[in-house]
Design goal:
Layout (H helix, E strand, L loop, with lengths): L1 H13 L3 H78 L6 H12 L9 H9 L7 H36 L26 H4 L3 H45 L1
Helix pairs in contact: 1-2, 2-3, 2-4, 2-7, 5-7
Length: 253
């Protein structure tokens, strides 16, 4: 093709058709420019297609991660609700002069005092930070993702740490003189049933410090479940909905 254009130029020059040569040269330049622009357009289109595919893959990663986070959250909430029910049973036995099964009471104390830890997936958010936050083209969705991962999760983890620290304080300062031992779990059975056996259950009925600790921890657990976990769950579900909407939008383009 280059030799073809060169022959045309040489022919025009040899025939002293300078005006036609200039027009031809301009036309050739225009064709070259058009060719470059087309190549750039194709390259830009390919780059945007790659960026769009990567964004879509990243959104699917967020979707999968949030689904796992929600499962972990809901599992923790079920465990805490079991602990709250156990506390009700303990307090009923302490506050009423009725027969009780000490083995069941020991299991209830263990259920009540077993901590949970919210574990969430960070891979998608770390990828987003490394690639640049603008990888997500929808600004409102970007803000929502940052709000959950960089704010809501951190806020929750701080409050969860306070809750677990109070359980640890109970094991260290309240329980040693009143119970046989802590962290006694049967790891061979489902749900790892535990036993936190009182040395003298009857004495606990008049033990104001112990009663105060049980009621206070029960109240803390309710706040954790009914406010902090509930708020976190609401934000996760809302973000999942926004991500699903954006995935449908990108796939329809």
């Amino acid at each position: 093709m280059i030799k073809f254009f060169r022959r045309i130029r040489q022919k025009l020059l040899s025939e002293n058709k300078f005006t036609k040569y200039i027009l031809y040269a301009i036309g050739e330049i225009v064709l070259v420019v058009i060719g470059i622009l087309i190549a750039l357009g194709i390259n830009n289109w390919n780059e945007k297609r790659k960026e769009g595919n990567f964004e879509l893959q990243l959104l699917y990663s967020f979707k999968d991660g949030l689904k796992k986070d929600l499962q972990d959250l809901e599992g923790n909430v079920r465990w805490h609700k079991r602990g709250l029910a156990a506390a009700d049973t303990i307090l009923f036995a302490l506050e009423n002069d009725k027969d009780y099964d000490i083995d069941k009471i020991a299991r209830n104390f263990s259920d009540f005092m077993t901590p949970t830890f919210f574990r969430y997936s960070t891979s998608a958010f770390e990828t987003l930070k490394s690639k640049g936050i603008t990888t997500i083209s929808n600004k409102q969705l970007r803000d929502a993702i940052i709000g959950v991962y960089d704010s809501q999760y951190n806020f929750f983890l701080v409050n969860e740490r306070y809750f677990v620290d109070e359980l640890e304080r109970g094991f260290a300062e309240v329980f040693p003189t009143r119970f046989e031992s802590a962290y006694d779990y049967d790891l061979t059975k489902p749900d790892f049933p535990g036993s936190l056996r009182p040395l003298n259950f009857e004495a606990l009925k008049k033990d104001q410090e112990m009663l105060y600790y049980i009621r206070s921890t029960q109240n803390r657990t309710r706040i954790l479940v009914d406010w902090q976990y509930a708020q976190l769950r609401s934000r996760i579900v809302e973000l999942m909905s926004k991500i699903n909407t954006e995935i449908e939008h990108l796939e329809s383009q």
